[in-house]
Automatic annotation (TrEMBL), chain A:
It comes from the Bacteria. Gene3D superfamilies: P-loop containing nucleotide triphosphate hydrolases. Residues 4-246, 261-511 form the ABC transporter domain. Keywords: ATP-binding, Hydrolase, Nucleotide-binding, Transport. Its EC number is 3.6.3.-. GO terms for biological process: transmembrane transport. This is Glutathione import ATP-binding protein GsiA. The keyword Transport applies. One of its GO terms (molecular function) is ATP hydrolysis activity. SUPFAM superfamilies: P-loop containing nucleoside triphosphate hydrolases (SSF52540). Belongs to the ABC transporter superfamily. InterPro entries: AAA+_ATPase (IPR003593), ABC_transp_ATP-bind (IPR050319), ABC_transporter-like_ATP-bd (IPR003439), ABC_transporter-like_CS (IPR017871), P-loop_NTPase (IPR027417).
TrEMBL record, chain B:
The keyword Ribonucleoprotein does not apply. It is a multi-pass membrane protein. It comes from the Bacteria. GO terms for molecular function: dipeptide transmembrane transporter activity. Belongs to the binding-protein-dependent transport system permease family. It is found in: Cell membrane. It comes from Roseovarius litorisediminis. Residues 95-300 form the ABC transmembrane type-1 domain. Keywords: Cell membrane, Membrane, Transmembrane, Transmembrane helix, Transport. Pfam families: BPD_transp_1, BPD_transp_1_N. The chain crosses the membrane at residues 95-120, 141-162, 174-191, 235-257, 285-307. This is Nickel transport system permease protein NikB. GO terms for cellular component: plasma membrane.
TrEMBL record, chain C:
Keywords: Cell membrane, Membrane, Transmembrane, Transmembrane helix, Transport. One of its GO terms (cellular component) is plasma membrane. InterPro entries: BP-dependent_transpt_permease (IPR050366), MetI-like (IPR000515), MetI-like_sf (IPR035906). Residues 65-255 form the ABC transmembrane type-1 domain. Belongs to the binding-protein-dependent transport system permease family. Its main location: membrane. It comes from the Bacteria. PROSITE patterns: ABC_TM1 (PS50928). GO terms for biological process: transmembrane transport. It is found in: Cell membrane. This is Glutathione transport system permease protein GsiD. The keyword Cell membrane applies. Pfam families: BPD_transp_1.
Length: 521, 315, 271
């Protein structure tokens, strides 16, 4: 008999079905991966197993854990099972811990809730559990003193403190940096092997799950599309997902020799708050003597983990902030001359942002949003001419001219990124900075967006600066790559060469984290 | 932690200094000479000069500010223009009414608000919650002096349970004193309790929506356990702010209620002093109240640090 | 919770309408004294009874509403007119000297007991409706400045503001085009709340005799007049108090309703 057996599970939220006919099984010691794009119902499935669904949810079907029907249990019985028989780790480690309690207390609470033991003994056991998850900080620390990866280990410790038979991990590594991700996944694998737990691993990333899971469940729009071993996946949706996650767009242009953007010894310092009343304000060097160049028509990848100085560098390149040392030249002219940004240079650069939701003013119509960069022009098009340019920009990214009368909330995430691209294109810049521009998109939409970028790049002779932490995307679309860490450039070279034969130890670490899909899919 | 306290202390002293300067300047620009006001229109020039000298009204503004400030540091608030008694004594007497009244009202407010907020937050979407929230709407909208008048009508005039006004004095015994402060305290507490209930309820509901509550539930805590062990302390941060604000408001804002009940408190003292152009009294009482507000804010800051480890570790 | 909005708007509109109507028509002239009919309980002719001068209380309440509403409304206008630009300016350079200066000045105003200072202002410069407006308005400034700054700081970190900067727009233009329009909902809600607080404050001031001066009627003054007669003429105290209570309640309900109505749409637009 399976440890967890879900049969014909159906969940309705406010009358609308979010899960239909979901069936899956997890056996002891088995890792089952649940894969799906956002909104596919994978997290809802996890919450249904825990019976922690949002208020107003109606749940029917069968969820049997160790032979107990979870849907038939009372709230009191459920509380007794949660934490003892089944543990869960959520996506966001930054908010999953109570900021006012020490991590030791929070792990010990799992024990104290379920067993009659003294506080001291619970704390001692909590400390041992924290050691088990390889956390190298004392249990008296508070969550805010820990990094994201460390916090996620605390969350895992809370979930496994009582050695539950089933562990659910809902996107446990999505919010973490790539180098941290691997450590957390390895830990989960190790715990499963040691305790013989069943693990239900939920992710949007096939790569994360593929080489860990014994069984894979693919979900789409609240339904299970296919269940099976990774190499046996046959369903067209599964295949589309697989293909899209490693998509290489067609591109002709590979760049000329003439440099478009040149950075020389760029330094960007931030003042830090002064220490005490009389102390001097300190300095934080976010970008430390960075030099590189982008040739016209080339795609350059800028890779690094969060906090490495990518965003600061981007703002400096766009001429939004002054640099303390060094020069940034576009077409041989400085982007920031003396006191203010150089307007004639700035109109040759535009940007696309990561979050398709926050990069548009929700109160403006698409036409006004898209035409905002006209502000940079000496003589902006007016009247009919303006309408024509807006329509042209929208059509070039695959939208309709009539879309200019709509508000931004009427569009999906992928469409919004297209609108962002239209906004960047409308003044025909030379350089477009793409700051994690496809990271928030589902794999299939991402693949389409990459194709569009490649097509437009060829058509308008654009140069792209790809800023990303997603190494597989960078590998597939860039000509050259620059690796950044703690404000410095640690490696630079042709994309193929860097990926095949990294020189720097940090680059090697980064590349080792790229999840590799098993062959023959 | 020590650093945090020291830092707060320095900023407390600075605020006091700035506030005293503002108060002094504000009263400098008030039209009218207190000496002339006291002696009437037909006063002799030399009597006026003598009185000015006695009241310390001569000298440059800076000198007078300095002597006022140094006097206050020694507990000498000067002599009242109208009553010719030390201001410190007058304030001392009134403080024995205002301070207990403020504490009484604040206590009542917390006593009503805490259980009401917990009850409303844990029964989300029920008729009971709707009832509590409806009551708080009424409590906020009711003008407290009108509520006081109605209470006088019912509990003093008709039922004769409490005195209609005046203060028995603490010499008459604790019970008599508290009895004459009960109706004013209830009148003051009702709107405050309503505000506190609403703030606390929404703080609790906000915290209940946090991820760490879901984590706690996943550990096997019941809804109630999660509320008490995790949500309550996190929700205390905005609640502490409001309690601090309310205390300073109660200390100073009781003027109107003191008027309704003819209580000899600080508010009425200022009110009378303003009408009589007794500026030194006004100056001192306002300074004292500002001091109280700033002190309360300081205490609230310390309480934050006690509740929230993130502040303790900072710098 | 549309119920809140409908009920609140209805109540507020009723009192505002009555105050407006009083410019053209009142049941009885409140300037004329009618000592023969003084202190009469509610009747067919005088729906809410008469006061100690024989004036019709319903008419007094209608005319008195003008003062309350005008004082509170102008005070909110002062608070918004000065507080919002200050808050917007403070948010432009977070932690800069302007921000520090504005916020410290705000803290300072908050440290002064508001009612006391209002009483001081009106007492020193004379009791009048104008001085009451100034006294209440001053304390509205930091409320709006702080609210605007807090919300604007959040908006300044959003990508659409960065997009506008990439499009070469300056701080003033961004504040007007992108920040302010996204604050409108918040300001409407806070405006309603400050409006209702203003009505309570005006009532308090005129109760202690520092608001509008006789013969201009005001709700607070009517309550003060009724206090000595409350044991034998409770109707004189009941109706002005209820007028204040219901107006404030209406405004608060309207504020709550507006927040519920405006919030989800805003979130749907952004999220």
């Amino acid at each position: 008999m399976s440890l967890l057996q879900v049969e014909n599970l159906r969940v309705e939220l406010g009358g609308a079905p979010v899960l239909q006919d979901v069936s899956l099984r997890v056996a002891s010691g088995q890792i089952v991966g649940v894969i799906g794009e956002s909104g596919s119902g994978k997290s809802m499935t996890a919450l249904a197993v825990m019976q922690l669904l949002p208020p107003g949810a109606r749940c029917t079907g069968q969820v049997a854990l160790k032979g107990q029907d979870m849907l038939a249990l009372t709230e009191r019985q459920l509380c007794r099972m949660r934490g003892r028989d089944v543990g869960i780790v959520f996506q966001e480690p930054m908010t999953a811990l109570n900021p006012l309690q020490t991590i030791g207390q929070q792990v010990a609470e799992t024990i104290l809730i379920h067993e009659i033991v003294s506080r001291a003994e619970a704390m001692a056991r909590a400390a041992r559990t924290l050691e088990r998850v390889e956390l190298q900080v004392p249990p008296t620390r508070y969550p805010h003193e820990l990094s994201g990866g460390q916090r996620q280990r605390v969350c895992i410790a809370m979930a496994i403190a009582l050695r539950p038979e089933l562990l659910i991990a809902d996107e446990p590594t999505t919010a973490l940096d790539v180098t941290t991700q691997k450590g957390v996944l390895d830990l989960l694998k190790q715990l499963v092997a040691e305790d013989g737990m069943g693990l239900l691993l939920i992710s949007h990333d096939l790569g994360v799950v593929a080489d860990m899971a014994d069984q894979i469940v693919i979900m789409q729009r609240g339904q299970v599309v296919e269940t099976g071993r990774f190499c046996d996946l046959r369903h067209s949706y599964s295949k589309a997902l697989l293909a899209a996650s490693d998509h290489v767009p067609d591109r002709t242009g590979a760049g000329s020799e003439a440099p478009l953007l040149q950075l020389r010894d760029v330094v960007r310092d931030y003042p830090t708050p002064r220490k005490g009343w009389l102390g001097k304000p300190g300095r934080f060097r976010a970008v430390d003597r960075v030099s590189f160049e982008i040739r016209r028509g080339e795609n350059l990848g800028l890779v690094g983990e969060s906090g490495c100085g990518k965003s600061t560098l981007t703002r400096a390149i766009l001429g939004l902030e002054a640099v303390q040392e060094g020069t940034i030249l576009l077409g041989g002219q400085p982007v920031y001359d003396g006191q203010r940004a150089n307007r004639s240079i700035r109109r040759r650069m535009q940007m696309v942002f990561q979050d398709p939701y926050s990069s548009f003013n929700p109160r403006h119509r698409v036409g006004r949003l898209v035409s905002e960069p006209f502000h940079l022009l000496e003589t902006a098009p007016q009247g009919v001419e303006k309408e024509r340019v807006i329509a042209e920009a929208l059509e070039s990214v695959g939208l309709q001219a009539a879309d200019r009368h709509k508000f931004i909330h009427e569009f999906s995430g992928g469409q919004r990124q297209r609108i962002a691209l239209a906004r960047a294109l409308i003044i025909r810049p030379d350089l477009i900075v793409l700051d994690e521009a496809v990271s928030a998109l589902d794999v299939q939409v991402r693949a389409q967006m990459l194709d569009l970028l490649a097509d437009l790049g060829d058509r308008f002779g654009l140069t792209y600066l790809f800023i990303s932490h997603d190494l597989s995307v960078v590998r597939n679309v860039t000509d050259r790559v620059v690796v950044m860490r703690a404000g410095r450039i640690v490696e630079e070279g042709k994309t193929g060469e860097v990926f095949e034969n990294p020189k720097n130890i940090y680059t090697k670490q980064l590349l080792a984290t790229i999840p590799r899909l098993p062959e023959n899919a | 932690m020590l650093r945090y306290v020291l830092q707060r202390l320095v900023s407390l002293c600075l605020s006091l200094l700035v506030a005293s300067a503002v108060i002094f300047l504000a009263l400098e620009i008030v039209p009218g000479d207190p000496a002339a006001y006291m002696l009437g229109l037909n006063a002799q020039e030399d009597t006026l000069a003598a009185l000015r000298d006695e009241l310390g009204l001569n000298g440059t503004a800076l000198q007078r500010y300095g002597s006022w400030l140094s006097g206050m540091l020694h507990g000498d608030f000067g002599i009242s223009y109208t009553y010719r008694t030390p201001v410190a004594e007058m304030i001392g007497d009134r403080l024995w009414v205002s301070l207990p009244l403020a504490l009484f009202a604040l206590g009542l407010s917390c006593l009503i608000a805490f259980p009401a907020a917990l009850w409303a937050a844990s029964r989300r979407g029920t008729l009971g919650e709707l009832g509590v929230m409806g009551m708080t709407q009424l409590g906020i909208a009711i003008p407290n002096f009108w509520f006081a008048m109605l209470m006088v009508l019912i509990f003093a005039v008709n039922l004769r349970w409490f005195p209609a006004g005046g203060f028995a004095g603490w010499e008459e015994g604790l019970f008599a004193g508290l009895k004459s402060l009960t109706l004013p305290a209830v009148a003051l507490a009702l709107p405050q309790a309503s505000i506190l209930t609403r703030v606390m309820r929404s703080a609790l509901l906000d915290t209940l929506g946090e991820d760490f509550i879901r984590t706690a539930r996943a550990k096997g805590l019941t809804r109630g356990q999660a509320l008490r062990r995790h949500a309550l302390r996190n929700a205390m941060i905005p609640v502490l702010t409001i309690i601090g604000l309310q205390f300073s408001f109660l200390l100073a804002g009781a003027i109107i209620i003191e008027n309704v009940f003819f209580l000899p408190g600080l508010g009425r003292l200022v009110f009378q002093a303003i009408s009589a152009r007794d500026l030194i009294v006004v100056e001192s009482v306002v300074m004292l109240l500002v001091f109280a507000v700033i002190l309360v804010n300081f205490t609230v800051d310390l309480a934050y640090a006690w509740v929230d480890p993130r502040l303790r570790g900072r710098r | 919770m549309r119920r809140n909005l409908i009920l609140g708007t209805g109540l507020s509109a009723m009192f505002a309408g009555a105050a407006l109507l009083s410019f053209f028509w009142v049941p009885f002239d409140i300037g004329a004294l009618d000592i023969a009919n003084k202190i009469k309980p509610p009747s067919g002719a005088h729906w809410l009874g008469t006061d100690h001068f024989g004036r019709d209380i319903l008419s007094m309440i209608m005319v008195g509403g003008r003062t309350s509403i005008a004082v509170a409304l102008v005070a909110v206008g002062i608070g918004m007119g000065l507080g919002v630009p200050l808050g917007l300016a403070a948010a432009v350079q977070r932690g800069g000297w302007l921000d520090e200066g504005i916020m410290r000045a705000n803290d300072l105003i908050f440290a002064f007991p508001s009612l006391l200072i209002a009483i001081m202002i009106t007492a020193v410069f004379g009791a009048s409706a104008v001085n009451a407006i100034i006294a209440i308005g001053i304390f509205n400034i930091p409320v709006f400045a702080r609210l605007t700054r807090g919300a604007a700081l959040g908006l300044w970190t959003r990508d659409f503001v960065l997009a506008a900067r990439v499009a070469g727009k300056g701080a003033v233009r961004i504040s007007c085009e992108h920040i302010l329009p996204n604050l409108v909902n918040l300001l409407i809600v806070q405006g309603t709340i400050q409006f209702s607080l203003g009505i309570l404050a005006e009532a308090g001031l005129s109760y202690v005799g520092l608001g509008a001066q006789p013969p201009v009627p005001s709700w607070g003054r009517m309550l003060a007049d009724s206090q000595t007669m409350i044991s034998f003429a409770p109707h004189m105290a009941l109706s002005p108090g209820l007028a204040i209570l219901l107006t404030v309640l209406g405004l608060n309900l309207m504020g709550d309703g507006l927040r519920d109505l405006l919030d989800p749409r805003l979130q749907r637009g952004q999220r």
